[in-house]
Write a structure and sequence with these properties.
Oligomer: single chain
Transmembrane segments: 38-58
Helix content: 25-40%
Organism: Dactylosporangium siamense
Distance between the termini: 206 Å
Domain YoaR-like putative peptidoglycan binding: 269-334
Keywords: Membrane, Transmembrane, Transmembrane helix
InterPro entries: Glycopeptide_resist_protein (IPR052913), Vancomycin_resist_VanW (IPR007391), YoaR-like_PG-bd (IPR022029)
Shape: extended
């Protein structure tokens, strides 16, 4: 029994923990270092091959990235741009097959503003992240960045719509004189202009036909909307005049002007938006000028033979744009009097001193003077045209037309009847003699080295002009035109005396120009002609001849080039006013 008791006591006693050999701290630290080295070694063995593989493809575009079938993976950004542009060059320029409803057609990509933005597309490819194993599954496709001009595309597609569509009737309220007339909406069928850009951008360059469906087009404003506009705005708007109060006085807008300026038209989606046509309102109400101050443009003046800019002066005008909401609100009531207070705003000059100062007009290019006899009627015409010409500025690459600038010579403009060549005879007409202005201007252009576009010498030679280097003008058939082929502007200045006209051109000098003449050849003597016409002008007659002249361009004393001019003058007849003498009869 003692043995059994001892056995039970042993089972009830707690089990002693198993003991491990005591390891000194220095040994534990050494083992830990070995474990870390082993872990690092294993990690290195795993990572190094992966890093090596990634380094092989560590370019701007990750491996497996494609655009429109072009593999850009592994290329630098610059190489990817070149590769994509070169590969798709022909596809980008090729006509685009489209289907408008049931109609097939092709569209010229350039004509509709289709552009493949290669740089933006490659940027998108650079940002793409396929993942380390995406290339095993064919990589990823990046969509190209494409732009289209929706307006031009819509016009091109509409040309192929044919009879498949019916344009919707866009709602509006219009005025028949002063009576408002409703235009009610009618649905149609056609192309959705809001979707065509996205459709083309998504379908172009895919080697497939791009489909543009024909859909229902329903105007946004309804018949009820039009009726409300008719009752709430259009009808009361023309019930009475409108008074605009300004800090400088009142302006009354009469009913016809309201009808001309109030616009109740739809936008492209058929939404009617009331608006005010400010230009039409100003045209219909001339009295705005009574409360406004006109702006004065900057101009050139010539002081001590040098061009000087005279600054602009801004004006003031009625601020109709800011007042439009208040005006539209006032037009909704037919109660009188109707009045809206309107402020004034600055009206900038159209031409500023900054603009003129940037044209490079700073020195004399050329000057030329021709003479005439004082007291003749033609002198009035010469002065009138010279004044109209003075201060004209010709911009770089602009072609100047003398006829276009001064217009038709009329009595209302101050021109008088004076002799000029008409059908080979000397006739009186408004503006006779202004060819002297044309000749003087042409010589100034000649010696400034500017490009001759159009000129024609006189039929007969006049010794008051240099031969060959001269010009005549007749409105509108004969003009004097020249092109400012310099990189800076050109200012035309004129001056007249009782016996002369001078034209001076200012700009930035490029050339020293001289003229060289060849001999007069093929001389033809004049004939005598008797004229029994009420406006006959007698002449002494001059020989005709042929001659050439050369414009020589020089820089720093060295000839750069020369330009040939040549002309054949007809002999000026000896015109005698009166009947031809009769031959004596024999007795």
């Amino acid at each position: 029994m003692a043995t059994d008791l001892l056995s039970r006591l042993r089972r009830l006693a707690p089990t002693a923990p198993q003991t491990r050999p005591v390891v000194p701290p220095i040994v534990r630290r050494a083992r830990a270092r070995r474990r870390r080295r082993l872990t690092a070694t294993v990690t290195l063995l795993v990572v190094v091959p992966l890093v090596t593989a990634v380094s092989t493809y560590a370019k701007d575009v990750d491996r497996g990235v494609r655009v429109l079938g072009v593999d850009l993976g592994g290329h630098s950004r610059a190489d990817a741009v070149r590769l994509l542009r070169d590969t798709l060059r022909e596809r980008v320029a090729a006509p685009v097959p489209v289907r408008v409803g049931a109609s097939g057609a092709v569209v010229d990509p350039a004509a509709v503003g289709l552009v493949l933005d290669v740089d933006a597309t490659v940027d998108r490819a650079v940002r793409a992240t396929p993942g380390p194993f995406a290339w095993l599954h064919g990589g990823i496709t990046v969509e190209p960045v494409v732009h289209a001009d929706a307006t031009r595309l819509y016009e091109a597609l509409m040309a192929h719509l044919g009879t498949q569509g019916d344009a919707p009737v866009l709602p509006a309220v219009r005025f028949d004189k002063q009576r408002p007339v409703a235009v009610y909406p009618v649905s149609g069928r056609g192309i959705d202009r809001h979707r065509i850009g996205a459709i083309m951008e998504g379908g172009w360059l895919r080697r497939q036909t791009v489909d543009f469906p024909v859909v229902d087009l329903v105007p946004r404003s309804t018949k009820a909307d039009v009726d409300r506009l008719l009752a709430d705005l259009a009808t009361p708007a023309v019930a009475a005049p409108l008074v605009l109060g300004t800090p400088r006085g009142e302006v009354t807008v009469p009913v016809p002007a309201i009808a001309a300026a109030l616009k109740l038209e739809s936008d492209a989606d058929g939404l009617v938006q009331p608006s005010l046509d400010i230009a039409a309102l100003r045209k219909a109400v001339p009295s705005f000028t009574k409360v406004e101050v006109a702006a004065t443009d900057a101009t050139f003046t010539v002081e001590q033979d040098r061009p000087v800019v005279k600054p602009q002066v801004d004006g003031q005008q009625v601020d109709l744009a800011a007042a439009t909401p208040a005006i539209l609100a006032a037009l909704r009531t037919s109660a009188t009097p109707r009045r809206v207070e309107v402020g004034l705003t600055a009206k900038p000059a159209a031409v500023s001193s900054t603009q003129l100062g940037g044209l490079g007009i700073r020195e004399k290019l050329s000057t030329f003077t021709t003479k005439f006899d004082a007291g003749q009627s033609r002198v009035i015409n010469i002065r009138t045209m010279a004044e109209a010409l003075r201060g004209a500025v010709v911009l770089p690459d602009q072609t100047f037309s003398l006829n276009g600038h001064v217009g038709q010579r009329t009595h209302a403009k101050g021109y008088v009847d004076a002799p000029g060549i008409e059908d080979g005879k000397i006739k009186n007409s408004p503006g006779g003699g202004v060819s002297q202005v044309a000749t003087t201007l042409f010589n100034a252009v000649f010696y400034a080295g500017l490009q001759d576009v159009e000129h024609r010498p006189h039929t007969y030679y006049f010794d008051r002009y240099p031969s060959v280097i001269e010009a005549t003008v007749v409105f509108p058939s004969l003009d004097l035109r020249f092109r400012n082929d310099s990189p800076t502007g050109v200012l035309i200045d004129t001056a007249t005396t009782d016996t002369s006209i001078t034209v001076t051109l200012f700009g930035t000098k490029r050339w020293d120009v001289t003229a060289e003449y060849g001999p007069r050849t093929k001389t033809v003597q004049p004939t005598t002609t008797y004229l029994r016409e009420p406006d006959c002008n007698p002449t002494d007659g001059l020989p005709g001849f042929t001659q050439e002249a050369f414009r020589v361009f020089k820089q720093d004393g060295k000839e750069i080039r020369r330009e040939r001019f040549a002309w054949r003058y007809d002999p000026e007849p000896h015109f005698i006013c009166g009947p031809a003498p009769t031959s004596p009869t024999s007795g």
